[in-house]
Each structure stands twice: as C-alpha cells, then as structure tokens.
C-alpha cells in the first residue's frame, strides 16, 4: 500500500481553470491507497464537491504551505511568491531550467527549504519522450483561432469554452471563402491537434514536418493563406518567416498562428514579432502591405480547461500511481539536482520518497 500523500493545490493565476487531476482519476488514486487532499479553488473547472465525493480531503486554497513535510504538492503553473523557503516536493511546470526569468530564484527557494521540484515538462520515459503534455489541445486551439480570425469570426476577449461550443463556431458557413492552410510540425502532439481542428472546420491543410523543412521552400510556404506553427525546435534552423517576407507583394499568407511561441529564443523559427498576444487582444497585425495577422498565445490549452485537464490527468495518473517506484520521477529529481548544482545551490541527497 502506498504511503503517498498528494496535495492538489489551487492555482494562483486567476485565468487558470485547468487541473492536473480530474475527479474520476482522483477516485482511482484514493482507491489505490493514495491520501489525496484537494484545495478549494474558485476557478477550477471541476467543483470541489466532485473530489470530496470520491474520497478526497478538502483544504482551503493555499494551505499546502502548512501541509506535513512529506506531502507531495501537485499543481500546474507558478507558485505564489511566498513562502521564500520551499520545504515540500512540488510537481508542476517550473519553467526553471532554461534560464527563464525568475528561474534561479525558484531553484534557490527549493534549496533554502530542502524541498524539490519535479518538473512536469521533464517527466519523460527512458527514451526522453514526454509522458504527460497539453500539446494536442494547444494545436487544436491554435488552428481553431486561426480559422476564426481568417473567416472574420474571432471574438475578443477570448474566454474558456468547451470543445462542443468551439466546434460549432468552426463549422463553415454560407459565403465563407475557401482558403489554404499549412501546419508545420504536423506530426507532433500539437500538429495533430491542429490537423483535427482544421478538419472540423472543413479544411485539409498541407502538412510539413522535419523532412519538408530540411530545404525550406519559403515561396511555397508563402502561397498558403494560413500558417500554424507547431514545431518543437531543439537546434537552430533557418527561420520559416523573415522580416523581408512581410513586405513580399506576392505573399498570399494572411494569418499566422504560432503555437510554439519561442519568441526571444535563439531557436525561434518565426523571428518576425517580439511579444506574444493575449486573451484580451489575441491578434496583432504584423504588416498591412499586404495584411498579415499574428496570433501567438502561450496558454492555449487553458481555453479548453475541461478537455485539456481530462487528457492530461489520464496521462499523469499511471505515473502518480507509481510515484515511489517510477523511474520517471527519479529522472525528474536527478535533473532538479543537476540544474540546482549548476547554479551553485546545495540540494539534499534523499531518496524520492523522503526528500
Ligand atoms: N502555445 C501554447 O499554449 C503551447 C502549449 C503547449 C505546448 N506548446 C509548444 O508547442 C510546441 C510543440 O509541442 P508538441 O507537444 O507538439 O511537441 P512534439 O515534440 O510532440 O512535436 C513537435 C514536432 O515538430 C517537429 N519539428 C521539430 N523541428 C522541426 C522543423 N525544423 N521543421 C519541421 N518540423 C519540426 C517534430 O518532428 C515534431 O513532429 C512546443 O514548443 C511546446 O512548448 C505551446
């Protein structure tokens, strides 16, 4: 019987309605002997009563700070700024290993408290393949928003919705002009999502992945009306779009949706803009000669909180059930220690179960 005590925390970011564990999977955890505490949260897409009904304990929002030390705290996005010393093991997306703003501060908080970050982005199998990710829904939404913008039907501000409602808006209407679309990174998780959304909208996109961009045919790229970029770049490659392409009078391309959102990174394949767009103002015009609109939203799956949480939770559940023995968590812990030490931060040597 596992002794794992898992604590599902409230997300401080007010627009974040997703959760890494949905009530039906909470039931499976409890049935398998996990002690599960779930914090109340005003915005989580699943009400607290659904967790309580499957045997979870309920705690106030933010009360993880005083949870017993051996509790594993589970969330998705950033922690609040306090406490300064983090004593627990935390599972979430830390964004702390690529020199991001605030990365070293976060690792120092773990170092100071003796806790550990088990970063969901690096929860991988022995071949380095991600075990739980939101990519499919990112691509689905990236393509859906591009379709709506291109058809003149994108309504701002964007608000979280359901797939059913979104799909209704994607149906082609009388008078809609046909257009061509290109998905790059089409074989990945988000690329697959983008293809499914296009299909719902009645569009058959051109699909490119690594082989098709090896000798990039930029003129061919520019003959598409809509581009959805879904690549996961790991080494620098020639950009898909450059500043001069914006002024190219022969360009057909009118709408770009950048799911990847590597803005500011040396790996950015779309270095033609300098900041992401937001739910309040999702589209920015990059050029008016001829027009080119950009959508670059870096929290797309949050727009479909129920569907994206349900898929993510289903992928995470088997890993949580193997928390004490699972090699994937051991790899997360090793990486946390390596990255902390690279910054000169002292970290403990405890086993996964007793950090
Ligand atoms: N905007 C958002 O809200 C959001 C959410 C989740 C993920 N993402 C980002 O989306 C990107 C893709 O994530 P994923 O989960 O789909 O990754 P993935 O690894 O499943 O797929 C990436 C695909 O890109 C392809 N690729 C890599 N380099 C390429 C190149 N130069 N040319 C053509 N194809 C190339 C790969 O072969 C692969 O098929 C990541 O950068 C991820 O951080 C964004």
Automatic annotation (TrEMBL):
Name the InterPro entries on file: AASS (IPR051168), AlaDH/PNT_N (IPR007886), Lys1 (IPR027281), NAD(P)-bd_dom_sf (IPR036291)
Q: Which PANTHER family match?
A: SACCHAROPINE DEHYDROGENASE (PTHR11133), SACCHAROPINE DEHYDROGENASE [NAD(+), L-LYSINE-FORMING] (PTHR11133:SF23)
UniProt cross-references to Gene3D superfamilies, sorted A to Z: NAD(P)-binding Rossmann-like Domain (3.40.50.720)
Q: Which Pfam family, just one, is annotated for this protein?
A: AlaDh_PNT_N
Does NAD count among this protein's keywords?
yes
Q: In the UniProt record, does the keyword Oxidoreductase occur?
A: yes
Keywords (alphabetical) are:
NAD, Oxidoreductase
What's this protein's family per the entry? Belongs to the AlaDH/PNT family.
Q: Where is the Alanine dehydrogenase/pyridine nucleotide transhydrogenase N-terminal domain?
A: 7-141
Instruction: Name the chain's protein.
Output: Saccharopine dehydrogenase
């Amino acid at each position: 019987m596992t002794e794992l005590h898992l604590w599902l925390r409230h997300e401080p970011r007010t627009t974040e309605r997703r959760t890494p564990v949905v009530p039906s999977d909470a039931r499976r955890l409890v049935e398998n002997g996990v002690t599960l505490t779930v914090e109340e949260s005003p915005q989580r897409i699943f009400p607290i009563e659904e967790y309580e009904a499957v045997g979870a304990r309920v705690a106030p929002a933010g009360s993880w700070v005083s949870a017993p030390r051996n509790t594993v705290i589970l969330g998705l996005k950033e922690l609040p700024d306090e406490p300064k010393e983090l004593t627990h093991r935390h599972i979430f997306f830390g964004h702390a290993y690529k020199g991001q703003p605030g990365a070293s501060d976060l690792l120092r908080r773990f170092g100071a408290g003796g806790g550990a970050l088990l970063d969901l982005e690096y929860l991988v199998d022995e071949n380095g393949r991600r075990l739980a990710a939101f990519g499919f829904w990112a691509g689905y939404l990236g393509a859906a928003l591009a379709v709506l913008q291109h058809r003149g039907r994108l309504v701002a501000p964007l608000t979280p919705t359901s797939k059913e409602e979104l799909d209704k808006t994607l149906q082609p209407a009388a008078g809609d002009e046909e257009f061509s679309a290109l998905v790059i990174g089409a074989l990945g998780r988000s690329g697959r999502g983008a293809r499914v959304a296009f299909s719902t909208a009645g569009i058959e996109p051109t699909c490119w992945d690594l082989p098709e961009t090896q000798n990039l045919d930029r003129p061919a790229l520019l003959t598409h009306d809509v581009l959805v970029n879904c690549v996961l770049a790991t080494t620098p490659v020639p950009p898909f779009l450059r500043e001069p392409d914006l002024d190219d009078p022969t360009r057909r391309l009118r709408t770009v949706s950048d799911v990847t959102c590597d803005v500011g990174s040396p790996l950015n394949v779309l270095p033609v803009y300098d900041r992401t767009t937001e739910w309040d103002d999702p589209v920015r015009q990059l050029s008016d000669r001829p027009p080119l609109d950009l959508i670059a939203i870096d929290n797309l799956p949050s727009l479909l909180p129920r569907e994206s949480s349900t898929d993510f939770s289903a992928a995470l559940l088997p890993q949580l059930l193997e928390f004490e023995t699972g090699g994937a968590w051991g790899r997360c812990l090793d990486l946390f220690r390596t990255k902390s030490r690279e910054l000169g931060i002292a970290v403990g040597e405890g086993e996964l179960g007793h950090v």
